[in-house]
Amino acid sequence: MRPDVSIEVDHVSKKYARALKQSMLYGLEDLSRNLLGIRSRHETLRKHEFWAVDDVSLEIKRGESVALIGPNGSGKTTLLKMINGIFWPDRGSISVRGRVGALIAVGAGFHPLLTGRENIFINGAILGMSRAELAARFDAIVDFAQIGDFLDTPVKHYSSGMFVRLGFAVAAHSEPDVLLVDEVLAVGDRGFQTKCFKKMGELRQRGTTFVVVSHNMHTVAGFVDWVALLKNGKMKRYDDPFEGIGAYSKLFLEDDGGIERLVSAGKFVEFSNVELTQRELMPGEAFSIVLPYDCKRAYDDIEVDIAIYDLRDPDLHYQGTNHAYDRRIDLKEGKGTLAIEIQNLQINGSLGRITVAVWSKNRTEQLFWWRVPVTFRGMPHSTGKNFVPIRFDVSSTT
């Protein structure tokens, strides 16, 4: 491994069995073969096995920040755990240089019967810190984790947010050369997340290498140098994070699984077979949705809530209800359709989601919720989140 490289993953693969019983049987088989000096069958798949990570190679330089993104079940966390040494690859090799800190699962590395104080010393020792280092940084760790009142309480009584605060505080103050972070930071409150990213920025300036697993595309776009997109265990590198985010979003566009629909538990209305015009829009085009419904009783003065999100930005493009347009909507008993047209969308070159929620009067019951990823195409020769229609006119006075 070159001196400027922190992590090298060389043609790594990891397989699992789909059923626990089968996995245990294969484990006993592999153990028996190893005891007898017979090579285990790691190169091929046995019945009911699949490649969770399949022939992945990547090289992360010292000080780089990289995001592993992809749908659930694509192999992100498995790859992260192999980099951390929790799992061994079935094929290939992984090399990591320096002290590694990891936040991969809430509560990982903590003994539930020991106190927060005791777990700080145990967890710090696991991360390679000496007792003298831990003693010198103890107050800073406790202050960062904000658990002073519960420092001598067994951690089995901690909330998931307290686990994350303490785990991150220990890992960050170990001054790691490499920090691995799974989605666990999503458990913390907004204020603590901001505090964590500020600390991560400080570590990054000192040359710490980061590998982050996240579904928060705003976090990815604003923090990392490049992304690795995984799907079905296969990986593709994108040096431009926004290009990688776009490819990730298109996975949902290519698969109807990206359309999420929730019908409430209400017994008197059912929405079905959502119809929409298109999922790729140019600035100025309209987006139409038709919601067929079947009401067993009438719903008067319902509220239809529309929200448009940008995947690259935590802020909304727009949110409003039919009442903002002084439009009353009543659902009559029987079958009918609710048609919604979002007119003249002037969003320029973005990847977003459109959400529709239908509520009974005064929002006492949610009748329907639906979300779909949408691509907003960009206009040539223009930049920015929005496209502004501008008229040009020229006249000659001679």
What can you tell me about this protein's structure?
This protein is α+β, with helices and mostly antiparallel strands. The chain has 2 domains: 5-253, P-loop containing nucleotide triphosphate hydrolases (Rossmann fold); 258-376, abc- transporter (atp binding component) like domain (Coagulation Factor XIII, Chain A, domain 1). Helices cover 25% and strands 34% of the residues. It contains 8 helices and 20 strands. It has helices at residues 20-35, 76-84, 116-126, 131-145, 160-173, 190-205, 217-223, 241-253, and strands at 5-17, 49-61, 65-69, 91-96, 100-103, 178-181, 209-213, 226-231, 234-238, 260-263, 269-271, 275-276, 280-281, 287-295, 299-310, 313-321, 329-331, 334-342, 350-359, 366-376. The strands form 4 sheets. Strands 10, 13, 15, 16, 17, 19 and 20 form a 7-stranded mixed beta sheet that branches. Strands 5-6-7-3-8-9 form a 6-stranded mixed beta sheet, sandwiched between helices. A hairpin with a 2-residue loop joins strand 15 and strand 16 (313-321). Helix 3 (116-126) packs across helix 4, helix 3 packs across helix 5 (160-173) and helix 4 crosses helix 5. The chain is globular. The mean pLDDT is 85.
